[in-house]
Amino acid sequence: MVPSVARALSLVGYSVRTVDGVLGRRGVKDPEIINWCGENEAVWIHADDNARREHARLINSAGISTVWVPRPKKGLSAKQQLSRLAYKMQAIESRVAGSKRPVHLKLSASGTVDEPRVSLTDVSADQIGRG
Q: What is the pTM of this model?
């Protein structure tokens, strides 16, 4: 997640932190982020299209919940990412809090840039490593 998006979400009351904010540096590799999330019962919100495939075993063994915000081919601006996350953040919190097991969600949008239709779908643990 873009740091400015995390800051904006935290300003309105969501418990969202940035990697550099909790680990004290930028450029942290995914395995370290995943392990930190596991140790701190945090949800990993990311837009890395390859991360869930590359790190599926680690994600599952760490027992973390994830929210994947796939980027369209044309990219995803911080404003678009914030809009999508803010729209579905309460649903994300409810799904994570209401589950005894790790939750893996995909946040996607269709429609136009001005009027996207945002959806939140479950991705089962055995599907997390698939493209």
A: 0.84
Q: Which residue has the tokens 């919940």?
A: 65
Q: How many CB atoms lie within 10 A of CB 124?
A: 9
**Domain ranges (residues) in the chain:** 3-127
The sign of the CA dihedral 25, 29, 31, 37 is positive
Q: pLDDT tens digits, residue range 28-45?
A: 999 999 999 999 999 999
Residue 88, both tokens:
């579905």
Closest CA to 107 of 54, 71, 58, 53: 71
Report the candidate in 101, 97, 91, 99 with the shortest Cα–Cα distance to residue 121: 91
Q: Which of 13, 7, 16 is nearest to 67 (CA)?
A: 16
In the chain, beta strands by DSSP E = 44-46, 66-68, 104-111, 116-122
